[in-house]
Amino acid sequence: MWVNLLVILLQFLSGSIMYSYIIARIMKVNLSKIRDGNPGASNLWRALGWKYGVLALLLDYLKGVFPLAIFISLGIVKDNLIIALSALSGVMGHAFSPMLGFKGGKAVAVSFGAWSVLTKWEAPTILGTVFTIFTLIRPKGTTVGEDAYRVFLGYIFLLPYVLYKIFLSGFKDLHLLLFYIGNFAIILYKHYKDLWGYFRERESNKL
């Protein structure tokens, strides 16, 4: 039990390291003044260019993978429930980072990493495809609200995949649904203001 708790804690601590914030501080950039003020890779990209943005995205992705993937590969963690809880803990670490007074970022890149641990390339491919299609139909760029809607759509399209995987496994992969519910709840919490603003704007445009 103590080993499992340690893995969950270490994954949370890994997720809580805000690389974009650290890089921005080193480069003397205040991310709170960039676009929506989110201390994540997308705003670092806008502030310092694609090289720093890609670096931050990669680091955020990897902290959703490690150290959990190492514990799994070494056979230290085998229980799917613990794996799901640990993966979710990493996402929570980013979304509610102690480094930033438990405010954190929007947890998209770190979620890609966590889903990679649970499903390898499958779930990240679904999310990435939806994000890419939505971006391509907005060639002039997206607003903060549209970004939130894009993430929301990605998770809606991800649900049938999760249910299919559970059915295919004979309901042995219920941990995927547990992680999905927790991950989606965090994503909605971190995006709800932008998402609500997006829906309100659409309704006002219809009037």
Automatic annotation (TrEMBL):
GO cellular component terms, semicolon-separated: plasma membrane
Superkingdom as given in the UniProt entry: Bacteria
Catalytic activity annotation: an acyl phosphate + sn-glycerol 3-phosphate = a 1-acyl-sn-glycero-3-phosphate + phosphate
Residue intervals passing through the bilayer: 6-24, 52-76, 82-102, 114-137, 149-167, 174-192
GO biological process, one term: phospholipid biosynthetic process
Pfam families (alphabetical): G3P_acyltransf (PF02660)
Annotated pathway: Lipid metabolism; phospholipid metabolism
MF GO annotations: acyl-phosphate glycerol-3-phosphate acyltransferase activity
Compartments, record wording: Cell inner membrane
Main location: membrane
EC number(s) stated in the UniProt entry for this protein: 2.3.1.275
Key words of the record: Cell inner membrane, Cell membrane, Lipid biosynthesis, Lipid metabolism, Membrane, Phospholipid biosynthesis, Phospholipid metabolism, Transferase, Transmembrane, Transmembrane helix
Membrane topology label: Multi-pass membrane protein
HAMAP family assigned to the protein according to its UniProt record, in alphabetical order: PlsY (MF_01043)
Family, similarity comment: Belongs to the PlsY family.
Subunit structure, as described in the record: Probably interacts with PlsX.
Protein's job: Catalyzes the transfer of an acyl group from acyl-phosphate (acyl-PO(4)) to glycerol-3-phosphate (G3P) to form lysophosphatidic acid (LPA). This enzyme utilizes acyl-phosphate as fatty acyl donor, but not acyl-CoA or acyl-ACP.
Name of the protein: Glycerol-3-phosphate acyltransferase
Organism: Dictyoglomus thermophilum (strain ATCC 35947 / DSM 3960 / H-6-12)
Record gene name: plsY
